[in-house]
Amino acid sequence: MKGCQKIIGLTGSIGMGKSTVAGMLREAGVPVFDADATVRALQGPGGALLPAIEAAFPGTTGPDGVDRGKLGAAVFGKPEALARLEAIVHPAVAAAREQFLAQHCDSPMVVFDIPLLFERTGRGGMDAVVVVSAPAPVQKARVMARPGMSEARFADILAAQMPDAEKRARADYVLDTGTSIEETREALAKVLERINHLDGNAA
Q: Where in the cell is it found (predicted)?
């Protein structure tokens, strides 16, 4: 995975402000690879993975791409089925990531926006990992404001993610998003400055 630029992992639990920080990075001219957006494109209308997913899980795709409800029902609580799905999706995402790196080889830094970086992907080949974090009450308020969110669903999502404290302990840099947008932007600028002075060896 290592290319000719610094590779930075960006992660954080739900409601911590990762998407906002990713947007700030793009505004600053840093290329950002969005793992979730890549998966959505691969599974959306005309997506490259639809034939393989339909073959493995008949009836879970249609003109609008993957039916998330049907596919979720086909793999939820079924480790073997989930592993079969991941064997389809993960190599395609990895290939898209390599293409992204090649496209941005002239950039001094690229960012991989990966929600479950510690839980699934791991930090191999990355020069640094930035974790976005906010106080638990702020996180909960943000998440509960989302359409269709419930206390039970929020609890389930948290249970599937590594605790924020553990993510912060594993991070090279922690970015507090529980402050104002401008304060977060200033803190991010300081983090980027520090990363720019890394020697380039993967952490």
A: Cytoplasm
Does residue 62 have a known ligand-binding role?
no
Kind of pairing, strands 32-34 and 128-133? Answer: unpaired
Task: Indicate yes or no: pTM above 0.85.
Answer: no
What CATH number belongs to 1-31+112-203? 3.40.50.300
Is 20 annotated in a binding site? The answer is yes
Separation between Cα atoms, residue 85 and residue 137, nearest integer Å: 35
Would you kindly state where each structural domain of the chain is located, as residue ranges?
Answer: 1-31+112-203, 34-103
104-126 pLDDT, tens per residue?
988 999 999 988 888 877 777 78
Q: Which two tokens stand for residue 8?
A: 């930075």
**Under 8 Å between Cβ of 109 and 130:** no
**Residue 19 labelled as part of a binding site:** yes
Consult the annotation and say whether 149 binds a ligand: no
Name the phi and psi angles at 109, rounded to 5.
-150, 140
Q: How far apart are CA 163 and CA 39, in angstroms?
A: 24
> Phi, psi (5° rounding) for residue 6?
-70, 135
With b for 16 or more beta-carbon neighbours within 10 A and e for fewer, the 146-157 pattern comes to eeebeeeebeee
